[in-house]
Input
Amino acid sequence: MASTPLAAAREALAGIVNPRVGQDLLAAGMVEGLVIGDDGRPTFTFLLRRDDPATLVRQIRQAFQAADLPDPKIQIKDPSGPAKSTHGPPAEGDKAMPPPAPQMSLPNLGKVIAISSGKGGVGKSTVAANLAIALARAGHRVGLMDGDIYGPNIPRMFGVFERPQVSADRRMQPLEAYGVKLMSLGFIVERDAPAIWRGPIIMKIVTQFLRDVDWGTLDYFLVDLPPGTGDAQLSLVQATNVSGAVIVTTPQEMSVGDALRGGKMFDKVNVPVLGIVENMSGFTCPHCGEHTDLFPTGGGDKLSGELKVPVLGRIPMQAQMADLADRGKPIVVASPESPAAVALAEIAERVVEAARTRGGAELPILRG
Ligand SMILES: Nc1ncnc2c1ncn2[C@@H]1O[C@H](COP(=O)(O)OP(=O)(O)OP(=O)(O)O)[C@@H](O)[C@H]1O
Ligand SMILES: [Mg+2]
Output
């Protein structure tokens, strides 16, 4: 067990091997200037070449999470190019970041709802996928964009692995499953593809997904964001008119700090947080309906209090959920009567209501 956060961070980095060079990240000299920042977050520059796997960034985040370290601030630097931050807007004077693209007005997408979380692995993709299907089943026209550039997992969850068709006018056709139109980087790039999807390129991809995919006319457009407050979140928020964000958290207090930072990020860019979804919130017996809390509780309520937004619902732990998702069967499809699926369907209704009453795309009602 490492004695200090710095030692723990070094240990986590030394535990990840870059397959291109067959050495761990420290030995390979990929980490520069590792410090623990004033906010307690490990901060460093990560020298990632174009031909290194992009998944290394994700592996770092997962290793830090497993070591109970705060989500790191990683400056990604291509040794052949200038540094790009994966966290937050570019520092003043950072000429490497292009100005944000002009905001696109995409009324055909309907309400754009971002599903976000401070930490990885809390169930964002699960919530995004199941909400999308629940909304489609309630009769809405729904699109789901996998905005997780570093580890797209929507294809697997929907069991869709085809390549999208490109029409004569060079527009990409979304794939479709369970009544939801889908687009994911996972459809386009091979697993562990070289890490060219960074910084300004992320912006480009997000823009293309929004503009160049033939989404048709939708009522709801859900975006599964990568964890944290990185480029993809900001790109999306800057690129279009996001109606609202849904923040996924778990009952443990621990993850609230990160989720709170995520919520504040949306505040800063004037995107209303529609509410909190507390996932893995205890266990409901499928036979007798009795509910047991497995972990310390109150995470959702605490976050809701701090951000002054409602808890949209709580999803209990559900046996086989991961297994079913891996086989392309989200829980609302595989087991619609299960406590988790019922909770998700209710959350979908509350999201509709919250987007109607609090969504940013809504014009203010002027009273005389
Ligand atoms: N309520 C639940 N009960 C049981 N398993 C769950 C539940 N919610 C999510 N899971 C499982 O937990 C794992 C993580 O969920 P998911 O991939 O949705 O998280 P995520 O926040 O999108 O993660 P990442 O940050 O890696 O994108 C998955 O295997 C998923 O099937
Ligand atoms: Mg995910």
